[in-house]
Design brief:
440 residues, elongated, binds magnesium ion, binds adenosine monophosphate, alpha/beta, Molybdopterin biosynthesis moea protein, domain 2
Length: 440
Amino acid sequence: MPPPPSKPAAPRHHYHADMLSVEDARERILSHFSVLSVEARPILETLGMTLAEDLRALFDVPPLANSAMDGYAVRSHDVAKASDASPVSLPVISTVAAGQLPDRPVGPGTAVRIMTGAPMPEGADAVVPFEDTDEEERRKRGDGLKSISVRVPATAGGNVRPAGEDIRKGALVLAEGVTMRPGEIGVAASLGRKAVRVVRRPVVAIISTGDELIEPGQLHEPGKIYNSNAYSIAAAVQKYGGVARVVGIARDTVEALQAALDEAIGGEPDMVVTTAGVSKGDYDVVKDVLSKRGKITLWSVRMRPAKPLAFGTLDAPDGRKVPHLGLPGNPVSAMVAFEQFGRPAIQKMSGRKPSPRPSVQAVLEDPITNLDGRRVYARVIVYRDGAGVYRARTTGTQSSGALTSMALANGLAVCPDDVARIDPGEMVTVEMLDWPEEVF
Ligand code: AMP
Ligand code: MG
């Protein structure tokens, strides 16, 4: 959304030249990740995973032509002229239910009682539903069902589901690379597959650093704060299809951080995420420890929240280089940075295309100001008004410490780095975290 010409660009400070754009940072980060190995999993465990084989049909689905209705299997020719005035009476020679095979063919002038899903008997080419016969009256009269009168004409193929209607034998049904959603899992089951090969889920180890942190469940103490980052980030990892391993809290000391890293690496993760320790004051401890264990650099990313970001690799005992994402400590910053950098890394490792959030254009209801020429991700609620127009209002204070601004939001409204302000009534691009329909 280009700003109106009257509006000044957000002031840029000289150090911005040293800042990475979100896109540059993401690209550098993603270059350290590749698609993980493939494994066989029971189909119900594959929700959201990437299929790593082609699934072809070994038989027709449905395997046999079958009835789409409860009724009578007939030769359409026999009842082509049936009507109320001149019903056609047919002897009922047998019954076939779903799961059974017909025990005899339908010869000229006969019918077989058939249930939905039951295979069509040989000879029959149409099903006349109960309602189009006198079955009901016969029952009421106690006449039995030895024969039946058809009162509506049938045509060839009527109420019959042909064999292979859904899937033809030999057809490529699901191609390698698709994401397993409920429909794909159902299709795999309908092909008779109990397990399929998928790209395994990335394992993400999460370490929280900070002397002020205590764990949820511990007694609340003055001066201490509960470790929320580990949980919001772990939940995001799970939401995006990864396996989260919460290592716990490391104090701001060399020994504590080393011990936590050992524990994290011991779990053979595909990525290590730390929170806090990347702002100028704290960074030294982190840098000291991490540069002994691998490579680490502190970046400034041209975004708000979450300007400071560390990225590097850790050397695992088996020689692997494990990517390490160092998120800022502020709870909102940690989550927003994980959205921008952690989510695409998980997508790439999982065999999915790293893709941005779906975005909508919404009418902004509260101003978004950009103080210093960084891209602003404002936490907003997007809703659809009576006219079907998306509207976005900010979720209270935009402090990077106010985690409720994330909890209340369903999207991140983007104010470009060179736009100083977006006013109420203007359009804004919102990267959706969830859809309004899911939230309201
Ligand atoms: P820092 O990056 O260490 O300067 O931390 C910035 C802010 O985030 C401080 O207010 C910290 O108390 C807070 N913070 C750091 N780590 C966590 C965490 N794991 N959970 C919640 N808040 C945190
Ligand atoms: Mg700290």
